[in-house]
Specification:
- This protein has 139 residues and is an alpha/beta fold.
- The protein has a single domain, classed as Rossmann fold (3-Layer(aba) Sandwich).
- The protein is 35% helix and 20% strand.
- It has a five-stranded parallel sheet with strand order 2-1-3-4-5, sandwiched between helices.
- α3 packs parallel to α4 (96-105).
């Protein structure tokens, strides 16, 4: 509250001093490399990654590494493990067919390992936001 009874506005320094925390559940078998990747990507001071158990209601997003040829099985297993959590599939590369397949199997977003890391951060932040839209097509 300000001295005049109104709400005080946060300054840019107030906002940037506290990083946004995204609670991420890691699914599948490649958890250690995935954990390191997410910690590296989300270590910019604006966003911080907090890893949480997959079978929890507090996760903002779930992430699974998808191997070539295992797309449908991997996404189905991830959906079974974390049914209500928005799912981001990490793919070996951003092939249109592969992207369409994982999105049709239940992933809400995707990231290709051949893409810039800033895109992974952006997609995780968007996915973890309330009312995040599903990705309709590869970009």
């Amino acid at each position: 509250m300000s001295a005049r009874g109104g709400m005080a506005l946060a300054t840019r320094s107030d906002v940037s001093s506290t990083p946004r925390v995204i609670r991420v559940a890691l699914l599948g078998e490649a958890n250690e490399p995935l954990r390191r990747l997410l910690e590296d990507v989300l270590r910019d001071g604006v966003v911080r990654c907090e890893l949480v158990p997959a079978r929890t209601t507090v996760a903002d997003a779930a992430v699974v590494m998808v191997a070539w040829g295992e797309e449908a099985r991997t996404i189905a297993a991830a959906r079974a493990e974390a049914a209500d959590i928005p799912l981001l599939a990490i793919l070996p590369f951003g092939d249109d067919r592969l992207v369409a397949l994982v999105l049709s199997c239940g992933a809400r977003a995707w990231y290709g390992l051949d893409s810039p890391l800033a895109l992974l951060r952006s997609r995780l932040v968007t996915l973890a936001s309330p009312d995040a839209p599903d990705e309709a097509e590869p970009t």
